[in-house]
Structures are given as C-alpha cells and as structure tokens.
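This part of the workshop introduces the protein records we will be handling. An example says more than a description, so a record of this kind follows:
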Amino acid sequence: MLVAVACSPISGDGDAADPADWDGVVSNSRGQQLNLFMWGGSSEINRFVDNVYGPRLEAEFGIHLNRIPVADTVDAVNKVLSEIQAGRRRGGAVDLIWINGENFQTLRQADALLADWSRRLPNARFVDWDAPEVGLDFGLPVAGFESPLGSAQFQFVYDSARFGPEELPRSYAGLLQWVEMHPGRFTYPAPPDFHGNRFIKQAFYELTGGFERWLGGFDSAGYAESSPALWDYLQELEPHLWRKGTSYPPSLAELNRLFANGEIDFTFTQLPAGIEADVAAGILPATSRPFVFDTGTIGDSHYLAIPANAAHPEAAMVMANLVLEPELQAAKLAPANGWGDGLGISLSLLDDDSRRRIEAVLDDLGELALEPALLESVRLPEVAAEYTVALERDWQQYVRR
C-alpha cells in the first residue's frame, strides 16, 4: 500500500485556510466535527481529553470533538492510507492523529500528511523547535508536519511495600540477575505494544554499547551484526519470566493488572509527572513508586498530525493550537487532573506567570514522581524509526517463536 500511495502525493483540501490567516482558520472551523484518532488504552487520559479539550473547543470555537479510540495508532494510519489508495483525496474520516515514531514516518513516506502548518500556529511561539527532542521525531525532522502535544519518558514502577530502593535492579544486566533470583515475578508487554517496544529498545542500547552508534540513519549492517546480543539476552531472560515466558501480556493495561494483583513485581509508566493519576484511579497500589535504570531511559515527544485528506483541517489546527496553551499544558502535566503528561512547550519561552504556574506543578509532584532533574540526567534519545520496525519484527522471530 505504501508504494502505491507514495506515487500519488496528496495536497489535501484546497479550501483549507492558511494558518497564517488565523482568523480565517477559526472562522472556517466553526460548526465542524473534529474526528480525533488516539490511543484509547487509558481511561484517565480519555477522560481528560473529553472533559478538558472537548468543552473548550465547543464553547470557544463551536467545534464538536469526536474522540475515536484505537488500540494502536497504526489502525488510524492504515485507515488514512486505505482511503488515499482508494482515491479519497478529500473528506477523509481522520482529521487529527495523536502520533509519533514509525507511524509518523509511514505517513511522511506516503505523502499523506498536511504540510507546513504547525510552526505557523499562534501558540507555536511557545515551542522550542530547535530542541532535538522536539524537532526530530525518531530522528526524522518534524518539518511542519506535526505539532507537539507533550513528552514522555520510560520508567519502571515497583511496590515499596514489597521492596526497598536498594533491592531494585538498575540496569538490564542487573535485571537478569534479579529475575534469576525472583523467578516468575517479571514480564513485559509483547511488541508491537509501545511499552514492550521501548523495553527492548532500551535493552538494545545497553547491550550494544550505547545509543550513540545508532544515531543518524538506519545502519542495517551494524544492526545485523549487533542485535544478536539482544536476542541472546531476552532468550536468557525468558525462562525466568512470568509463566516462564510462554506468554506475554498484550498491553500495559494487562501488565498493570498483573502488578496490582501481586502476580509480578514491576510495571511501567511513560508519565514524567508520575503515577499519581493511576494510583488515584485504583489502577496501581498506593505504595507504588517509579524508578529508572542508571544506564538510562528513552524519552521523546508525541505530536498531533493532520492527514492530507482530512475533512476538517481547520478544526484540527484549532485543537493543535489549543493544546499548546500554557494553562492547558500545566493542566495536562498535573497528575491530579488525571494525566501527568510531560510538556510540549518550553518554560524558557513563557511569560513569568505561565512559567510560575507550571513550575508550581513540578514542585508539587510528590513521592509518586521522580525528580525532573533525575529524569533529565538519565534521558536517552530515540533513534530512526527503522530500528523499531526491525526490533518488532525480529522479536517475533527470535523470542516469541
């Protein structure tokens, strides 16, 4: 499908307003229904989107937000590609996608995204586009095709009622020793689940000498030479896993359930502001605490993108602009509001009042979150999306099978 689509670039709806004419964008967006396709695996995030963004869009712009949950973002990507391949060059079902990584790359390669809009949004002035973690999505330049929504960083979660911090593994080498001493008490989601992908990619970094050698484009020869170290490690890990590695949880939700039931000792989170929302919702025990490996954890940004054949690109631009408001970024950051997502904007570009509001949230995260300075000190970058695709594929061959 990708090859067929890529031969026919899509320019989108020629009637879409130019974001440089923001009054025109807002005027054209009134009365539109915005079909937002996003990962639906968190009821807390879903509730935030519905209860915070939805009413603002309706009251201020007359836009009705129709959140469409998907189990995996690739489902939305495939819908866009199928429509374009079928010749539906306007009026597509998908107006806006929560996206990053290989899904962004797929749509870019297919010329299936609206171009040159994100940096011209009014609130784009709050975004540090020169920061690599913002301007590059898995090594691919954002280049006006995406607008930041927030940021994330992979963390482990343990139950402080079962273990003290001094007992925790702090590297993949340490994790192997830990599971050998605690058989059946650890597992991870099966790729292509996002959290499973991130777990094995971090292991790939550590076991092949660090992320630095994988920066830049995809090194197929280097990957073929070095990746066996990862498969050897995961195969050595496997007999000590939950159910002796005969099955893997399909999602983070299932991993959280096993953890809450006491069947395993670790789960994961991607929320830089901590796990307060998951504890408050009863998903995780109150004694849960996040921790990270000393060898580093992957952090990145996530974005909103508009398909080139979107039926309502103006409404999509309005929402992408809305989520960049400092007030709403602060609300999204605060775990008490049900999310705890990282910032998509830069504190250095805000006025004093907005900066103080966000700093107050960061200062009040408590023991259910790690210090921002600690997360920054162990933050690892993402690399080219082709590595994720290769790791997903080869995990199926060398581990699952």
